[in-house]
Design brief:
The chain is of the alpha/beta class. It has 2 domains: 127-253, OB fold (Dihydrolipoamide Acetyltransferase, E2P), CATH 2.40.50; 262-537, P-loop containing nucleotide triphosphate hydrolases (Rossmann fold), CATH 3.40.50.300. The chain is 35% helix and 17% strand. It is built from 19 helices and 18 strands. It has helices spanning 3-21, 88-91, 118-121, 127-132, 135-144, 155-170, 207-212, 248-251, 278-286, 305-319, 334-343, 358-377, 389-399, 417-424, 448-457, 469-473, 496-509, 514-526, 531-537; strands spanning 29-33, 45-49, 173-181, 187-190, 203-205, 220-226, 235-243, 262-263, 268-269, 289-290, 294-299, 324-332, 348-353, 381-387, 427-429, 434-442, 463-466, 486-487. Strands 8, 11, 12, 13, 14, 15, 16, 17 and 18 form a 9-stranded mixed beta sheet that branches. Helix 5 (135-144) packs parallel to helix 6 and helix 12 (358-377) crosses helix 13. The longest helix is centred in the last third of the chain and has 20 residues, at 358-377. It is elongated.
Length: 540
């Protein structure tokens, strides 16, 4: 194609886009790259160059010649691809200064060949690996890359500077993160290492990519990224390599979570591990947990609910290593977050401490829930241990716009809808997969609001564990009130012979005061090495 004709068509197309988008829309100059004469149309590569600073992208092992000073065509050997530029309105959201990104590559006096995969391109760094490093390793790496004033920078800023310098050398890098789609249509890849907190190293995802691959909040997206251009603040996603660790085209064919068929839990999590781990043995006998259980741990303050959650998490991780366990701590103390991470190794611990604003609590909870829903759509078993649903409901109430309908305790009438949606997402799915949610609910705190929240969630679950203050005062753990605790449809979780003996145990403990009942059960369990041995010792 003659170069003069290309320029005329480019100017005409640019003027039409400018009139449609307004004066603020960036102008794009489209240049056609022609290959060798024998390759003809199959080797054409359309490259959109934006008016920002250029980025050089060179994949190893590929030969290319640079554009001449007269801006002539680039000759590319052995590579053919077409990149369709999205509109400037999608690439640059007006609300914030976001990168103009839709899978385009800027070329100016440089050799360009797109890297097809991270293995072929041999990229030097992975952002997820940087985010998982401790500060000692990160500081050492920052010094190697020549980052100035490392001691005065936060971890987010150090990672940003390292990635920026590495991307300038390599051209592109590989990144992976959990997508959060914002109301404006674009999104960002957040990091699990930073509890999905917004940071300068987050990856911008354009609206065109979100629409093309039908992306939703909670999708784990991996792909090639480029550094920010002049006037941009974030790294931008260049090419999507995988969605939820699957091929992007395959990921588009899933059934939405809301269209899956919910069933009663019919497969049990065996929590029993060691003979002297009595808490999980008692749970197996009194209130079993199944795949898809929606459970409440009703607890006054300082009754051991957090320790009980830790033991449940460790038991599931040990007996069911294929299950993805998420521990979500809302409005908790920072030292408890650290203790939970060190105690429950193998679980994904996500937290928003009490010094964070309510909006932060809500954002973390929604990303965790949406990520779990996406995993269930892929027929995985997911367990979320939430501490606590009372504080999550308080956060939703704090950010809820005033509706004029106030319930007792200062709860807005519409504030509990989203916490109920969170809790109600737990289900066993007929098509495969399950989402189990075990949440703690606070009572006897002296707050009328907490009592109202508990009353709203009471009866919505299919398993309840009641902790008793009288047992804690006697230093008896687990402090479970046996008579008030139980699981609905528990006959679906037990073997028929096992269920008959569970019924006998329940009858024997009915009417016995909580302290005496738990002491009697613990004494019997200490004399046996397993729950099966204990049940067989019961006379039918």
């Amino acid at each position: 194609m003659p170069r003069t004709a290309t320029k005329r068509s480019s100017k005409k197309k640019t003027s039409q886009q400018t009139e449609a988008l307004g004066a603020e829309a960036p102008k794009a100059e489209v240049t056609t790259l022609q290959g060798e004469a024998n390759q003809e149309a199959s080797n054409e590569c359309v490259v959109a160059s934006m008016p920002q600073a250029s980025t050089d992208i060179v994949a190893p092992g590929t030969e290319a010649t640079q554009r001449s000073e007269s801006n002539g065509p680039v000759q590319v050997e052995g590579h053919a691809s077409t990149i369709e530029p999205a509109t400037a309105q999608e690439n640059t959201p007006p609300a914030i200064d976001q990168p103009a990104m839709s899978g385009t590559v800027t070329v100016e006096k440089s050799a360009v060949v797109l890297a097809i995969s991270p293995d072929q391109a041999k990229l030097p760094l992975n952002i997820a690996e940087l985010q998982a490093m401790d500060m000692v390793e990160l500081t050492k790496l920052a010094n190697e890359y020549g980052v100035d004033n490392v001691g005065t920078l936060r971890k987010h800023d150090i990672i940003y500077q390292i990635v920026k310098r590495a991307a300038e050398k390599a051209g592109v890098m590989f990144a992976e993160g959990v997508l959060e789609v914002l109301p404006d249509g674009f999104g960002f890849l957040r990091s699990q290492s930073f509890n999905y907190l917004a940071g300068p190293e987050d990856i911008y995802v354009s609206p065109s990519q979100i629409r093309r691959f039908n992306l939703q909040t909670g999708n784990v997206v991996a792909g090639l990224i480029r550094p920010p251009k002049e006037g941009e603040r974030f790294f931008a996603l260049l090419k999507i390599e995988a969605i939820d660790h699957e091929d992007p085209e395959k990921a588009k064919q899933r059934t939405h979570f809301d269209n899956l068929t919910p069933l009663f839990p019919n497969k049990r999590f065996i929590l029993e591990t060691e003979p002297d781990e009595l808490s999980t043995r008692v749970l197996d006998l009194v209130c079993p947990i199944g795949k898809g259980t929606r459970g409440l741990i009703v607890a006054p303050p300082r009754t051991g609910k957090t320790i009980l959650l830790q033991k449940i998490a460790n038991a599931i991780l040990r007996n069911n290593p294929e299950v993805h366990v998420v521990i979500l701590l809302i409005d908790e103390r920072p030292e408890e977050v650290t203790d939970m991470k060190r105690t429950c190794k193998g679980a994904e611990v996500i937290s928003s401490t009490f010094d964070e604003p309510p909006e932060r609590h809500v954002q973390v909870a929604e990303i965790v829930l949406e990520k779990a829903r996406r995993m269930v759509e892929r027929k995985h078993d997911v367990v979320i241990l939430l501490d606590s649903i009372t504080r999550l409901a308080r956060a939703y109430n704090a950010i809820q716009p005033h509706s004029g309908k106030i319930l007792s305790g200062g709860i807005d009438a519409n504030a509990l809808h989203k916490p109920k949606r969170f809790f109600g997402s737990a289900r066993n799915v007929e098509e495969g997969g399950s989402l189990t949610i075990i949440a703690t609910a606070l009572i006897d705190t002296g707050s009328r609001m907490d009592e109202v929240i508990f009353e709203e969630f009471k009866g919505t679950g299919n398993m309840e564990v009641h902790l008793d203050r009288a047992l804690v005062d006697r230093r008896i753990f687990p402090s479970i009130n046996i008579e008030r605790s139980g699981t609905r449809k528990e006959e679906l979780l037990y073997h028929p012979d096992e269920y008959q003996r569970i019924v006998l145990l329940r009858r024997a403990l009915t009417g016995v005061p909580p302290v005496e009942a738990m002491e009697l059960l613990l004494n019997k369990l200490r004399k046996t090495k397993s729950n099966i041995e204990f049940l067989l010792s019961l006379s039918v």
